[in-house]
Amino acid sequence: MPRFAANLSMLYCEVDFLERFAAAAADGFDAVEFLFPYEHAPEQLAALLRQHGLQQVLFNAPPGDWDAGERGLACIPGREAEFHAGMERALHYAQQLDCPRIHVMAGRVPAQVSPANAHATYVANLRAAAALAAPLGIQLQIEPINGRDMPGYFLQRQDQAHALLDAIGAANVQVQMDLYHCQISEGDLAMKLRQYLDGGRVGHMQIAGVPGRHEPDMGEIHYPYLFTLIDQLGYGGWIGCEYRPARGAAAQATSAGLGWLRPWLDRAQ
After folding, report:
1. Cα–Cα distance, 212 to 246 (Å, whole number)
2. 46 near 98, Cβ under 8 Å?
């Protein structure tokens, strides 16, 4: 059965971040993910995970200056030392949180950088990061992100991601397949799932409704069909609930929108 992880950066925004672990556990989640852990000590986050019986399944490596619009450093020439330092910091957190996966954001391609140079920089950085992560048993994830939400992002399509896996050539680098981004960039989700889930190169998945990025039972994607297909295709990983509740930050906004999840939790029991 599909296994769902609550994305604590987007869900439960009606309460403080550190209170979201308890809220997710109370709603029946066994696992969580979030964008960035670095504002909190890893020991504090690890204690919350233990307290609420949760597994940390994913977070992102440092993205550069997020507030200035940076969305990763992996493809940017001249930032290699900063990228390397960020990966070491992320790996430290992953060990403390017993988290098996780190998403490495590719970044926006600077206007003065050629596609070939961005590609070469990205491949070299991911190879170096994979070599750091492999002895620790940690998988690195690369995620295509649609160009509407993130203009200029280096990695936007599934075929590009899988070609990059071949170029990087590291067994501990996998694709993070976000069906929200995939629908916007490419569509044809069922066929994409059939094409890419076979072979074990998709290490993590995420979902949201399209076009609003709200609950998966809102919008144009029929997720019940896709969840059944994902199960039939033998995917055993986690599916991150990376969406913004349509009810916003009102009291119980996230919990009130989890009607789509209840049947799947009931089946898993």
Report:
1. 8
2. yes
Enumerate the active-site residues. 143, 242
pLDDT at 188 over 60: yes
CA dihedral 227, 228, 233, 236 (to 10 degrees): 50
* Distance between CA atoms of residues 231 and 188, nearest Å: 18
Place of tokens 């440092």: 62
Residue 150: which of 84, 70, 77, 248 has the closest Cα? 70
In tens, the pLDDT along 223-268 reads 999 999 999 999 999 999 999 999 998 889 999 999 999 887 766 6
Q: Return phi, psi of residue 47, to 5°.
A: -65, -40
Neighbours of 190 (CB within 10 A): 13
Alpha helices (H) in 98-149, listed in sequence order: 115-133
Helix (H, G, I), strand (E, B) or coil at 154: coil
Rounded to the nearest 10°, the torsion over CA 94, 99, 104, 105 is: -110
pTM across the whole model: 0.96
Element (H, E) at 101: strand 101-103
Q: How far apart (Å, rounded) are the C-alpha atoms in residues 66 and 146?
A: 17
